[in-house]
Each structure stands twice: as C-alpha cells, then as structure tokens.
Amino acid sequence: MKLQDVKNEFEKYIVVKDKWILDVVLANMIGNLIIINDPVWTMIVAPSSGGKSTVIAPCVGVPSVYFVDDLTEKTLLSGFKVKGKETSFLKVI
Q1: Nearest alpha-carbon partner for 18 in 42, 51, 49
Q2: Sign of CA pseudo-dihedral 24, 28, 31, 37
Q3: Where do the DSSP E strands lie in the chain?
C-alpha cells in the first residue's frame, strides 16, 4: 500500500484540512519503529473535534504506541494503584 492510497482512504470518510498530517503521523510512527534510539514524540494540536483522534486511531495496536489524553507530571508519575495493572506512564513505556 502506498502513502497516497492511505490518504485517499482517509479522505473517503473524513475531511482532511491539513494535507500533511498523515505524513507527519505515519513518518513519526515508522521512524520510531525502525530507529533504535530515543523516541521522537509528536504532539498534534487542534481545536476540539478537530479530527486528532481520527488521524491517530489507526495506530492503535502498533507496538510502542501509547495514547495519552492529558500529559502532566501526574500522568508520568501516577501513584494510582490498580490491582494487577501498572498505571505510571513512565513505567509502562
């Protein structure tokens, strides 16, 4: 599958105003999968209901991809305990 095929498929279902967003998301994901160094973190900033989740949703299930709704010091160092589950984001990644 070519990149243009992915873009065409997205455009069947959603209006993509920023034509580069898929390039950025996919390049970041692929780069982090093939380069064994410190990861590159990408932050997508857009208004509410701007399609951010729709663009990154296909990345679910890719190894080493984690979704974070709100990135704060509490997110990284959560002391919240759930039986049998690690909740500290730093320990998970």
Answers
A1: 51
A2: positive
A3: none
Structure tokens at 16: 């993509």
pLDDT by residue for the chain (93 residues), tens only, comes to 898 998 888 889 888 788 899 999 989 888 888 888 888 888 888 888 888 888 888 888 887 777 776 667 666 665 555 566 666 666 666
3-state class of 72 per DSSP? coil
Which residues touch 17 (CB under 8 Å, ≥6 apart)?
A: 51
DSSP state at residue 85 = B
**How many whole angstroms from its chain centre is CA 39?**
12
